[in-house]
Each structure stands twice: as C-alpha cells, then as structure tokens.
C-alpha cells in the first residue's frame, strides 16, 4: 500500500474518504468511542483488508456502522427491544447484536460466519457525515493492530497503521475513549461486552434485567478474546505500590507518571485510558503498573479493558 493520506473534516476530504470506501479501500475515522478502521461491509475483499491490516483473528466478528435506524433494520431482524434501545441510546456508544437478514448482503467475513450481526449508529458528527456521504454500511473495528491499544487520536492510528490503510480522517480526540457496550438481542438481552452504557441503564430502558455472557461462551462479538487492547509492555493491575522500572498509571490521589483521573472521575478515566496507555508504552518501560479502579459503573468497562490488556499474550498479539 502507498502512503496513508491524512484527511481533514472538510467536505472535500470527507468526499475523498467516501470515495476510498467505495473503491474498496480502508479509511480510519473518528467516533465518539475510539477511531474505527472502516471498509465497505458488503465487499469481501475490502473486509478482508481490515483483517490483513490489523492481523486480526478471523473468528472475531466486526461491528457494522450505519447512518440511521432504517439502515440497521435493513440488515438485521429488528425487534421491539432494538427499537426501544435505539430510541434511548442511538446515536451513541451502544452496539446491538441481532439476527442477520437473509437479504442483508453483508460479507461473511464481517460476521465471522455467524448468523448474527453487530450494528451501531455512532454519535460523532464526522462519523455520521462520512456514513451519509458513503451511503452504505461500514464495517469498522478499532483502527489499530489486533490486540493492541485502541486509538483515540489520529496520531495513534498513523503510528500503528501508516502505510497499511488508504487514509485517516483526523477529527480530534474521541470523547468517550472506550469502546461501545455490546448487547446481544438474538435471545434474552445479554451483555456481551461492557462499555460506556451500563447494564443498569440498558435494563431501565428495556424494563427487564440484562443477563451476563458466560465466561466460557463462544465468541459472539468483538472484544471477547482473552488478550486484547494490549500495549507492548507488561501490565500489572491493582498496584498499590510501585516497582522499579515500571511506568505508573494512577487513579485518584496518588503519585504517578500519568493519572486516569486525579479526582476519581470514572468518565474522565475512561476517556484517558487508551491515550495514557499509549503514552506510557511509548516511554519504553518494560511494565506498566495500574492503580486499582473501582468496579462500578464505567469502572466495570475500564477494568474489563485492563484485564484483557494484562492477560497472557498469544502469538498474534
């Protein structure tokens, strides 16, 4: 692949990004969660390019981003529960996994051969403008090498994928900084991946409890592999004291190299998580020690990401 283009958010550059997508090329773009690596979800070769660029395990499905609810309903068997949740949280950081329509035309590579599809309507204005300009569904995992730290800035994308993708649309830092919550709706509502919207908020919108995915269940959504979101450095969790040569990632009132949130604000911590991991990893330290983060609300999602970052590495990570 030739040099990766850095595009602005001007109408001309958005049109150029959409043209890349129509030509089957890969484009990274900002969402409110993290930067996504987009390809035409209907094009087998384009979707295969995502797996190639990311060196991503082929059994891990992708989230398909859509411009509106009607576009989602054209791809999946839309339900009353989906309508209620989309009304409450779309556009926003909630992905719904629903049975795939027979006439959806989505690449089997995007579903990893499953009979369900993960769909999301992002809130970021640049993402929505690009989806409208492209006029179709865009498969878009996080724009980084598989298993590495998710990117919340265009510079993170360029550092990991320059020369491997056609373009990146630079739209500033991601506001949420944490991937979307994923909810399975092919059966009873089931939390498949925690994220910026809590199970409690989803339960309130549905008027019923949300089940949790069994730890030994087959992979049914992105972000479920054991080692994921990992820096090159080893990660040590729940550190209450620092060891020699460790980079120190704090939370709350603690002396450290970088602090997720000195005030203990979980929303601020989520927004800073991946950017701070990137920065500490670039310091060259052999290990990153992380202060305890409360396991409540957004803290559940933060701890999920940290646990995957600290997990033993397979050969592909």
Percent strand equals: 15-25%
Q: Distance N terminus to C terminus?
A: 22 Å
- Mean pLDDT equals 91
Q: Say what the CATH topology of the largest domain is.
A: DHBP synthase
- Number of helical segments? 10
Enzyme class: transferase
Domain YrdC-like: 11-197
GO biological process, one term: tRNA processing
InterPro entries: DHBP_synth_RibB-like_a/b_dom, Sua5-like_dom, Sua5/YwlC_C, Sua5_C, T(6)A37_SUA5, TC-AMP_synthase_SUA5
Describe it for me?
By secondary structure, the chain is an alpha/beta fold. It folds into 2 domains: 5-212, DHBP synthase; 234-310, Rossmann fold. Helices cover 31% and strands 17% of the residues. It contains 10 helices and 15 strands. The chain has an 11-stranded mixed beta sheet with strand order 1-8-2-3-7-4-6-5-9-10-11, sandwiched between helices. It has a 4-stranded parallel beta sheet with strand order 12-15-13-14, with helices on one face. Strand 9 and strand 10 form a beta hairpin. Helix 1 crosses helix 6 (125-134) and helix 9 (266-282) runs parallel beside helix 10. The longest helix is centred in the last third of the chain and has 17 residues, at 266-282. The two termini are 22 Å apart.
